[in-house]
Amino acid sequence: MDLSTEELLSRKETLKQFENYIDQTRNTLKCFVEKIGWTLDETPNNDKLVKCPFNNEHRMPSSTLEVHCQKCALKKNGYDSSHSFYPSYNLSTTLAQTVKIAFDLS
To answer: What is the pTM of this model?
Structure first.
């Protein structure tokens, strides 16, 4: 199959455009993973991620689960990121160890 010079140049230009697109996409991905503290060689494996007990669609490393759960519990209850738990709050506290205070405003 013989290609004309014009067709050959057109194909080379198309190939160059694909290569440029791939390089730009790779750089974008590299910047993104570096921004979140990963590298392209060391991204978390889905097998190592755990599910959030408040939202089954959330997955994260077990090392960040407690902090995530605090934020997710607040969000689920209508609070935003400006709110936080009292510093001594611990998600592992059982109900038998929890003190509830009820106010009667009547």
So the answer is: 0.38
Residues 71 and 89 sit within 8 Å (Cβ to Cβ):
no
Q: What values do phi and psi take at 49, rounded to 5?
A: -90, 150
Structure tokens at 45: 């494996």
How far is residue 64 from each of residues 19, 37, 40, measured CA to CA in Å?
37, 13, 20
Q: Residue 85: how many CB atoms within 10 A of its CB?
A: 13
Kindly state the tokens that stand for 46. Answer: 């889905």
- Give the model's pLDDT for residue 80: 77
Collect all residues with Cβ–Cβ distance below 8 Å to 80 and sequence separation of at least 6: 74
Answer yes or no: are the C-beta atoms of 77 and 83 closer than 8 Å. no
Those residues with Cβ within 8 angstroms of residue 103's Cβ, 6 or more apart along the chain or in another chain: none
Higher pLDDT, residue 21 or 71: 21
Q: Which of 31, 28, 8, 9 is nearest to 20 (CA)?
A: 28
